[in-house]
Amino acid sequence: MQFIPYSLYPTFIRPFLFLADAETAHGIIMTGAKLCSKRPLLKLFKQEVAYRPVTVMGLNFKNPIGLAAGLDKNGEAIDFFGALGFGHIEVGTVTPKPQDGNPKPRMFRIKSAQGIINRMGFNNKGVDYLVNNLKKRKYQGILGVSIGKNETTPIENALDDYLICMRKVYEYADYIAVNISCPNTPDLTKLQAKEPLLKLIKPLKEEQAKLQEKFSKYVPLVVKISPDLSDDMLNTICEICLEVKVDGITCTNTTTQREPIHGLEHASEWGGLSGEPLRALSNLTLQKVNDNLKGAIPIIGVGGVSNIISAKEKLNNGASLVQLYSSLVYRGPNVVKSIVDNL
Protein backbone atom coordinates (compact mmCIF):
# COMPACT_ATOMS: atom_id res chain seq x y z
CA MET A 1 0.00 0.00 0.00
CA GLN A 2 1.43 3.37 -1.02
CA PHE A 3 1.93 5.65 1.98
CA ILE A 4 2.64 8.92 0.13
CA PRO A 5 -0.08 10.36 -2.17
CA TYR A 6 2.27 11.48 -4.96
CA SER A 7 -0.42 13.63 -6.57
CA LEU A 8 0.13 16.08 -3.70
CA TYR A 9 3.82 16.56 -4.54
CA PRO A 10 3.43 19.89 -6.42
CA THR A 11 1.37 21.36 -3.58
CA PHE A 12 3.19 20.19 -0.47
CA ILE A 13 6.62 18.67 -1.20
CA ARG A 14 7.91 20.78 -4.12
CA PRO A 15 7.49 24.15 -2.32
CA PHE A 16 9.62 22.82 0.54
CA LEU A 17 12.32 21.51 -1.79
CA PHE A 18 12.34 24.73 -3.81
CA LEU A 19 13.25 26.72 -0.68
CA ALA A 20 16.74 25.28 -1.19
CA ASP A 21 18.97 25.78 -4.21
CA ALA A 22 18.68 23.15 -6.94
CA GLU A 23 21.71 21.04 -5.99
CA THR A 24 20.89 21.08 -2.28
CA ALA A 25 17.36 19.94 -3.08
CA HIS A 26 18.82 17.18 -5.27
CA GLY A 27 20.90 16.07 -2.30
CA ILE A 28 17.82 16.01 -0.05
CA ILE A 29 15.95 13.91 -2.61
CA MET A 30 18.83 11.46 -2.96
CA THR A 31 19.27 11.12 0.81
CA GLY A 32 15.58 10.35 1.17
CA ALA A 33 15.60 8.02 -1.82
CA LYS A 34 18.53 6.04 -0.41
CA LEU A 35 16.78 5.71 2.93
CA CYS A 36 13.51 4.66 1.28
CA SER A 37 15.31 2.04 -0.81
CA LYS A 38 15.64 -0.09 2.31
CA ARG A 39 13.02 -2.65 3.12
CA PRO A 40 10.45 -2.62 4.64
CA LEU A 41 10.27 1.15 3.99
CA LEU A 42 10.28 0.58 0.23
CA LYS A 43 6.77 -0.88 0.12
CA LEU A 44 5.36 2.35 1.58
CA PHE A 45 6.57 4.28 -1.45
CA LYS A 46 5.78 1.75 -4.17
CA GLN A 47 3.63 3.12 -6.99
CA GLU A 48 1.50 0.71 -8.99
CA VAL A 49 1.47 1.44 -12.71
CA ALA A 50 -0.10 -0.29 -15.69
CA TYR A 51 1.75 -3.13 -17.41
CA ARG A 52 2.77 -1.90 -20.87
CA PRO A 53 5.43 -4.39 -22.01
CA VAL A 54 7.80 -3.67 -24.89
CA THR A 55 10.85 -5.51 -26.21
CA VAL A 56 13.76 -3.32 -27.36
CA MET A 57 17.38 -4.31 -28.06
CA GLY A 58 16.44 -7.85 -27.10
CA LEU A 59 15.46 -6.69 -23.60
CA ASN A 60 12.00 -7.00 -22.08
CA PHE A 61 10.76 -3.77 -20.50
CA LYS A 62 7.61 -3.74 -18.35
CA ASN A 63 6.83 -0.32 -19.87
CA PRO A 64 8.71 2.08 -22.17
CA ILE A 65 9.18 4.91 -19.62
CA GLY A 66 12.56 5.18 -17.95
CA LEU A 67 14.57 7.41 -15.64
CA ALA A 68 17.26 9.30 -17.52
CA ALA A 69 20.90 9.35 -16.40
CA GLY A 70 22.03 12.13 -14.09
CA LEU A 71 19.62 11.80 -11.17
CA ASP A 72 21.14 8.70 -9.56
CA LYS A 73 24.75 9.04 -10.69
CA ASN A 74 26.14 6.49 -8.25
CA GLY A 75 23.36 3.91 -8.24
CA GLU A 76 22.54 4.65 -4.61
CA ALA A 77 18.73 4.57 -4.85
CA ILE A 78 17.96 2.16 -7.68
CA ASP A 79 15.35 0.26 -5.68
CA PHE A 80 13.46 3.43 -4.70
CA PHE A 81 13.28 4.79 -8.23
CA GLY A 82 12.32 1.33 -9.47
CA ALA A 83 9.42 1.34 -7.01
CA LEU A 84 8.01 4.45 -8.69
CA GLY A 85 7.08 2.35 -11.72
CA PHE A 86 9.85 3.03 -14.22
CA GLY A 87 10.30 0.35 -16.86
CA HIS A 88 14.02 1.05 -16.84
CA ILE A 89 16.53 3.12 -14.91
CA GLU A 90 19.75 4.59 -16.28
CA VAL A 91 22.38 5.39 -13.65
CA GLY A 92 25.56 7.45 -14.07
CA THR A 93 27.25 9.02 -15.86
CA VAL A 94 30.12 7.23 -14.15
CA THR A 95 33.87 7.68 -14.69
CA PRO A 96 36.82 5.39 -13.84
CA LYS A 97 38.01 7.55 -10.93
CA PRO A 98 35.89 9.59 -8.51
CA GLN A 99 35.71 13.29 -9.34
CA ASP A 100 34.09 16.35 -7.77
CA GLY A 101 32.88 17.93 -11.00
CA ASN A 102 32.68 21.65 -11.67
CA PRO A 103 32.68 24.39 -8.99
CA LYS A 104 29.39 25.28 -7.32
CA PRO A 105 26.86 26.71 -7.97
CA ARG A 106 26.32 24.47 -10.98
CA MET A 107 22.59 23.70 -11.14
CA PHE A 108 19.83 26.26 -11.72
CA ARG A 109 16.05 26.02 -12.01
CA ILE A 110 14.28 27.87 -14.80
CA LYS A 111 11.02 27.76 -12.87
CA SER A 112 8.79 29.67 -15.27
CA ALA A 113 9.75 27.29 -18.08
CA GLN A 114 10.04 24.09 -16.01
CA GLY A 115 13.63 23.75 -17.12
CA ILE A 116 17.00 23.11 -15.48
CA ILE A 117 20.49 24.25 -16.40
CA ASN A 118 23.30 22.13 -15.04
CA ARG A 119 27.06 22.12 -15.41
CA MET A 120 27.76 19.34 -12.93
CA GLY A 121 30.71 17.94 -14.85
CA PHE A 122 30.29 14.18 -14.26
CA ASN A 123 30.53 14.48 -10.47
CA ASN A 124 30.49 10.88 -9.19
CA LYS A 125 32.14 8.49 -6.76
CA GLY A 126 33.81 6.37 -9.41
CA VAL A 127 32.95 3.14 -11.19
CA ASP A 128 33.97 0.80 -8.35
CA TYR A 129 31.52 2.49 -5.97
CA LEU A 130 28.78 2.23 -8.58
CA VAL A 131 29.46 -1.46 -9.25
CA ASN A 132 29.14 -2.22 -5.55
CA ASN A 133 25.67 -0.64 -5.58
CA LEU A 134 24.70 -2.50 -8.75
CA LYS A 135 25.49 -5.77 -6.99
CA LYS A 136 23.17 -4.92 -4.09
CA ARG A 137 20.12 -3.81 -6.05
CA LYS A 138 16.85 -5.70 -5.77
CA TYR A 139 15.14 -3.86 -8.64
CA GLN A 140 13.97 -6.34 -11.28
CA GLY A 141 13.52 -3.89 -14.16
CA ILE A 142 16.02 -3.02 -16.89
CA LEU A 143 19.13 -1.25 -15.63
CA GLY A 144 21.30 0.89 -17.91
CA VAL A 145 24.67 2.38 -17.02
CA SER A 146 25.92 5.60 -18.60
CA ILE A 147 29.71 5.73 -18.90
CA GLY A 148 32.07 8.65 -19.55
CA LYS A 149 35.63 9.85 -19.13
CA ASN A 150 37.39 11.67 -16.31
CA GLU A 151 37.96 15.37 -16.92
CA THR A 152 41.71 14.94 -16.38
CA THR A 153 41.94 12.30 -19.12
CA PRO A 154 43.07 13.85 -22.43
CA ILE A 155 40.45 13.54 -25.14
CA GLU A 156 42.83 11.47 -27.28
CA ASN A 157 42.90 8.89 -24.44
CA ALA A 158 39.14 8.87 -23.87
CA LEU A 159 38.77 5.30 -25.15
CA ASP A 160 40.82 4.03 -22.21
CA ASP A 161 38.33 5.46 -19.71
CA TYR A 162 35.30 4.11 -21.56
CA LEU A 163 36.88 0.66 -21.74
CA ILE A 164 37.64 0.66 -18.00
CA CYS A 165 34.04 1.52 -17.17
CA MET A 166 32.60 -0.89 -19.71
CA ARG A 167 34.61 -3.83 -18.42
CA LYS A 168 33.65 -3.15 -14.81
CA VAL A 169 29.91 -2.60 -15.28
CA TYR A 170 29.26 -5.13 -18.07
CA GLU A 171 28.37 -8.06 -15.83
CA TYR A 172 25.85 -6.03 -13.83
CA ALA A 173 24.23 -3.86 -16.53
CA ASP A 174 21.37 -4.66 -18.92
CA TYR A 175 22.65 -2.05 -21.38
CA ILE A 176 25.52 0.45 -21.47
CA ALA A 177 25.11 4.04 -22.66
CA VAL A 178 28.18 5.80 -24.08
CA ASN A 179 27.89 9.46 -23.12
CA ILE A 180 29.80 11.51 -25.71
CA SER A 181 27.48 14.52 -25.68
CA CYS A 182 27.48 16.13 -22.25
CA PRO A 183 28.38 19.82 -22.78
CA ASN A 184 29.85 20.17 -19.28
CA THR A 185 33.08 18.16 -19.69
CA PRO A 186 35.79 19.91 -21.75
CA ASP A 187 36.13 18.61 -25.31
CA LEU A 188 33.78 15.65 -24.73
CA THR A 189 31.40 16.62 -27.53
CA LYS A 190 34.33 16.47 -29.97
CA LEU A 191 33.94 12.69 -29.79
CA GLN A 192 30.83 13.07 -31.95
CA ALA A 193 32.95 14.02 -34.98
CA LYS A 194 33.48 11.31 -37.60
CA GLU A 195 37.03 10.10 -36.92
CA PRO A 196 36.97 10.35 -33.11
CA LEU A 197 33.58 8.62 -32.99
CA LEU A 198 34.70 5.74 -35.19
CA LYS A 199 37.91 5.34 -33.17
CA LEU A 200 35.83 5.18 -29.99
CA ILE A 201 32.80 3.10 -30.94
CA LYS A 202 34.50 0.45 -33.05
CA PRO A 203 36.85 -0.70 -30.24
CA LEU A 204 33.95 -0.60 -27.77
CA LYS A 205 31.95 -2.91 -30.03
CA GLU A 206 34.96 -5.22 -30.30
CA GLU A 207 35.25 -5.24 -26.51
CA GLN A 208 31.54 -5.94 -26.25
CA ALA A 209 32.05 -9.15 -28.26
CA LYS A 210 34.86 -10.26 -25.93
CA LEU A 211 32.81 -9.53 -22.82
CA GLN A 212 29.82 -11.34 -24.28
CA GLU A 213 31.94 -14.46 -24.61
CA LYS A 214 33.42 -14.03 -21.14
CA PHE A 215 30.11 -13.57 -19.32
CA SER A 216 27.81 -15.47 -21.71
CA LYS A 217 25.66 -12.37 -21.80
CA TYR A 218 25.02 -9.77 -24.51
CA VAL A 219 24.79 -6.23 -23.13
CA PRO A 220 23.59 -3.73 -25.76
CA LEU A 221 25.65 -0.61 -26.44
CA VAL A 222 23.81 2.72 -26.79
CA VAL A 223 25.26 6.03 -27.99
CA LYS A 224 23.86 9.26 -26.48
CA ILE A 225 24.02 12.29 -28.78
CA SER A 226 23.61 16.05 -28.53
CA PRO A 227 20.63 18.09 -29.80
CA ASP A 228 23.06 20.76 -31.03
CA LEU A 229 24.49 18.87 -34.01
CA SER A 230 24.31 19.96 -37.64
CA ASP A 231 22.43 17.80 -40.12
CA ASP A 232 25.72 16.67 -41.63
CA MET A 233 27.02 15.56 -38.23
CA LEU A 234 23.77 13.74 -37.49
CA ASN A 235 24.00 11.94 -40.81
CA THR A 236 27.60 10.93 -40.12
CA ILE A 237 26.81 9.66 -36.64
CA CYS A 238 23.94 7.57 -37.98
CA GLU A 239 26.16 6.15 -40.72
CA ILE A 240 28.84 5.13 -38.22
CA CYS A 241 26.31 3.63 -35.80
CA LEU A 242 24.83 1.59 -38.64
CA GLU A 243 28.28 0.56 -39.87
CA VAL A 244 29.53 -0.75 -36.52
CA LYS A 245 26.10 -2.06 -35.49
CA VAL A 246 25.47 0.06 -32.41
CA ASP A 247 22.45 -1.33 -30.52
CA GLY A 248 20.69 1.95 -29.78
CA ILE A 249 20.89 5.75 -29.97
CA THR A 250 19.64 8.15 -27.30
CA CYS A 251 18.19 11.45 -28.55
CA THR A 252 19.16 13.66 -26.77
CA ASN A 253 21.46 15.05 -24.14
CA THR A 254 21.03 18.62 -22.84
CA THR A 255 21.44 21.69 -25.06
CA THR A 256 23.67 24.75 -24.91
CA GLN A 257 21.11 26.78 -26.85
CA ARG A 258 19.25 29.50 -24.95
CA GLU A 259 16.62 30.79 -27.39
CA PRO A 260 13.70 29.04 -25.62
CA ILE A 261 14.51 30.72 -22.30
CA HIS A 262 15.92 34.06 -23.51
CA GLY A 263 15.32 36.75 -20.90
CA LEU A 264 14.33 34.34 -18.12
CA GLU A 265 16.07 33.99 -14.77
CA HIS A 266 19.40 32.11 -14.99
CA ALA A 267 19.25 32.00 -18.81
CA SER A 268 22.79 33.38 -19.00
CA GLU A 269 24.28 30.56 -16.92
CA TRP A 270 26.47 28.19 -18.94
CA GLY A 271 25.78 24.48 -18.99
CA GLY A 272 23.26 22.04 -20.42
CA LEU A 273 19.58 23.02 -20.55
CA SER A 274 16.99 20.30 -19.95
CA GLY A 275 13.29 20.02 -19.24
CA GLU A 276 10.41 21.59 -21.14
CA PRO A 277 12.63 24.10 -23.05
CA LEU A 278 14.50 21.16 -24.61
CA ARG A 279 11.35 19.44 -25.86
CA ALA A 280 11.06 20.88 -29.39
CA LEU A 281 14.78 20.67 -30.15
CA SER A 282 15.13 17.10 -28.92
CA ASN A 283 12.05 16.09 -30.91
CA LEU A 284 13.54 17.62 -34.06
CA THR A 285 16.79 15.70 -33.55
CA LEU A 286 14.81 12.53 -32.91
CA GLN A 287 12.87 12.98 -36.15
CA LYS A 288 16.05 13.49 -38.18
CA VAL A 289 17.77 10.46 -36.64
CA ASN A 290 14.69 8.33 -37.21
CA ASP A 291 14.59 9.40 -40.87
CA ASN A 292 18.24 8.36 -41.21
CA LEU A 293 17.96 5.02 -39.43
CA LYS A 294 14.65 3.91 -40.93
CA GLY A 295 14.06 1.56 -38.03
CA ALA A 296 17.43 -0.18 -38.25
CA ILE A 297 18.50 0.92 -34.76
CA PRO A 298 16.16 1.51 -31.78
CA ILE A 299 16.00 5.06 -30.42
CA ILE A 300 15.59 6.23 -26.83
CA GLY A 301 13.80 9.59 -26.74
CA VAL A 302 14.60 12.01 -23.91
CA GLY A 303 14.17 15.75 -23.45
CA GLY A 304 11.11 17.63 -22.23
CA VAL A 305 8.95 14.62 -21.38
CA SER A 306 6.45 15.78 -18.77
CA ASN A 307 3.09 14.22 -19.64
CA ILE A 308 1.39 11.69 -21.91
CA ILE A 309 1.37 14.10 -24.87
CA SER A 310 5.11 14.76 -24.81
CA ALA A 311 5.81 11.05 -24.25
CA LYS A 312 3.67 10.10 -27.25
CA GLU A 313 5.48 12.71 -29.34
CA LYS A 314 8.69 10.76 -28.79
CA LEU A 315 7.07 7.43 -29.57
CA ASN A 316 5.27 8.76 -32.65
CA ASN A 317 8.52 10.25 -33.95
CA GLY A 318 10.31 6.93 -33.82
CA ALA A 319 11.44 6.34 -30.24
CA SER A 320 11.00 2.84 -28.83
CA LEU A 321 11.73 3.96 -25.27
CA VAL A 322 11.28 7.29 -23.49
CA GLN A 323 13.18 8.77 -20.55
CA LEU A 324 12.49 11.67 -18.19
CA TYR A 325 14.26 13.48 -15.37
CA SER A 326 13.43 17.20 -15.05
CA SER A 327 9.67 16.62 -14.93
CA LEU A 328 10.22 14.40 -11.89
CA VAL A 329 11.61 17.50 -10.16
CA TYR A 330 8.71 19.74 -11.16
CA ARG A 331 5.80 17.28 -11.12
CA GLY A 332 6.88 14.51 -8.77
CA PRO A 333 6.60 10.70 -9.03
CA ASN A 334 2.97 10.87 -10.17
CA VAL A 335 4.23 11.91 -13.62
CA VAL A 336 5.46 8.33 -14.14
CA LYS A 337 2.11 6.75 -13.32
CA SER A 338 0.19 9.35 -15.32
CA ILE A 339 2.21 8.64 -18.45
CA VAL A 340 2.42 4.86 -18.20
CA ASP A 341 -1.26 4.39 -17.34
CA ASN A 342 -2.33 6.41 -20.38
CA LEU A 343 -0.04 4.84 -22.97
Overview features:
8-stranded parallel beta barrel; alpha/beta; 13 strands; single chain; 3-stranded antiparallel β-sheet; 343 residues; TIM Barrel
How would you describe the overall organization of this protein?
The protein has about 350 residues and is an alpha/beta fold. The chain has a single domain, classed as Aldolase class I (TIM Barrel). The chain is about 40% helix and about 15% strand. A hairpin with a 4-residue loop joins strand 5 and strand 6 (about 115-120). Helix 6 runs parallel beside helix 7 (about 195-215) and helix 7 runs parallel beside helix 8 (about 230-245). The longest helix is centred in the middle third of the chain and has 22 residues, at about 195-215. The model has no long low-confidence stretch (mean pLDDT about 95).
Total DSSP helices? 12
Question: What is the radius of gyration?
Answer: 18 Å
> Averaging pLDDT over every residue, what do you get?
95
Order of helices and strands: HHHEEEHEEEHEHEHEHEEHEHEHH
Q: Tell me the domain tally.
A: 1
Shape: globular
Structural class: alpha/beta
CATH-assigned homologous superfamily: Aldolase class I
Roughly what fraction of the amino acids lie in strands?
15-25%
* CATH C-level: Alpha Beta
Numbering strands along the chain, what is their spatial order in the largest sheet?
Answer: 3-4-7-8-9-10-12-13
CATH topology: TIM Barrel
Q: Percent of residues in helical segments?
A: 25-40%
Main sheet specs:
8 strands, parallel, barrel
Termini separation comes to 23 Å
- By CATH, the architecture is named Alpha-Beta Barrel
